[in-house]
Amino acid sequence: MWQALVEAVEDRSAKGIALALSAGIDRGVLRPGERLPPIRRVARDLQVAPATISAAWSQLARAGLIETDGRRGTRVREASVGPRRYRRALDSRAGYRVDLSTGLPDPRLLPDLHAAMRRVRRDETQHSYLEEPVVPALREVLEASWPHPVEALTVVDGAMDAHSQFVAAHLRFGDRVAVEQPCFPPLLDLLEMAGTVPIGVRYDAEGPVVADVVSALDAGAKVLFFQPWGQNPSGRSLSLARAGELATVLAGRDSVIVEDDSAGGAPSGPQISLGALLPDRIVLVRSFSKTHGPDLRLAAIGGPASVVAPIVERRYLGQGWSSRLVQSILLELLTDPHSREQVTRAQATYAVRTAALASALADRGVCVPGRDGINLWVPVADQGAALLHLAAAGVRAASGDPFWISAPDSDHIRITTSSIDADDEPGLAALADLVADAARAGTWAGHR
Ligand SMILES: Cc1ncc(COP(=O)(O)O)c(C=O)c1O
């Protein structure tokens, strides 16, 4: 079995070896708890220097796939499934003066839920099991605001619920799926838990890289997951030109594309989607958590009936529908002029805050890939050192590792900008100084 793994290593760089091992772990060739042979033996089998194996092992350890246990050697980590990336994001939040790790909106900029609750009319709340799962007036508003005419649409309990329902209805153990890299960690946890095999697709300045999408499809990917706007964590967005190129290469295939929109249909930039180009294959998941409130737990899924209907049907045997009372609150928020204005203003404020920190970092020699949305993806020399440097000043950021399928070849941290004060010039400068120093902390290897 070890021999089969050795033979599966095509690229004998540290990264290539780490990727081959991680694929072995993903496919269950290497089982949780299984011990890896000593570094010298692996180096001999692969005919590389022991230092290359050490580097591969440390990449795998950083991704949480293996662990070294003193003299007892290195083994595949137990519990390699479950919300491990998600849990890491929740761990040890106490003791920080400023938490920039959350990926959450600024609560002060969310529309007033209590006012909306008071406006919900009594007769709008249903007291029956037999009504439509989606409040009809909300359906109309959602369909009218959808970026393209949509065959089927339903409302579920947030975007992660949408992904979870989609995976349960349409993916099976061993299915290959293309996922943007880096990407939202709980989606990776979910795909891993379902036993699918994620294939990474780079996301460059214009969106998912066409060549990567093609090779993922050639490798059998049934689905492509990506975020068209304000990609979390990179802050990048899909361009119109890239949307056209992707539509061309996707046109002759039968894979489904899931677009994950966290901006509730109200991005501060243009709303670009592949939907108008490939209406029979695009599923758009639109979350209202960041724009209208995470505790509404509402998202809409729209797309071809062949994709959405099985989700609605299956849900009848579970939750059935998302609370119509809460749907009515969302309807209020989406139609009330004051609430709409609050959402638009919030998006504009986020744009200013994100751009302010990104520019201040650029002035200090730290360039981030994108500026859309509420996160900055900051390249750092050493992730651990960067997080420690920030922690020493009482500031928490998110570690970059959980955003990758397997060990990344460069280090990043994610900084959420939603709540920073862009008008406080000295405060902003101090934060940018701190983040820029953190980016350079640790073993200096230049900016990667
Ligand atoms: C890209 C992306 N997808 C999905 C989600 C989950 O959204 P929801 O709160 O609607 O489950 C988030 C939340 O941060 C996200 O950033």
**CATH class identity of the largest domain:** Alpha Beta
Distance from N terminus to C terminus (CA atoms, Å) equals 36 Å
Spatial strand arrangement across the major sheet: 4-11-10-9-8-5-6-7
Count structural domains. Answer: 3
Shape: globular
- In terms of DSSP E residues, the strand content is 5-15%
Oligomer: single chain
CATH topology description of the largest domain:
Aspartate Aminotransferase, domain 2
Radius of gyration: 23 Å
Helical fraction: 40-55%
Ligand types: pyridoxal-5'-phosphate
**Average pLDDT, all residues:** 90
Supply the CATH superfamily name of the largest domain: Type I PLP-dependent aspartate aminotransferase-like (Major domain)
Named CATH architecture of the largest domain: 3-Layer(aba) Sandwich
- Biggest sheet character: 8 strands, mixed
Count helical runs: 17
- Unreliable residue runs: 444-448
DSSP, total strands: 15
Query: Structural class, judged by helices and strands?
Result: alpha/beta
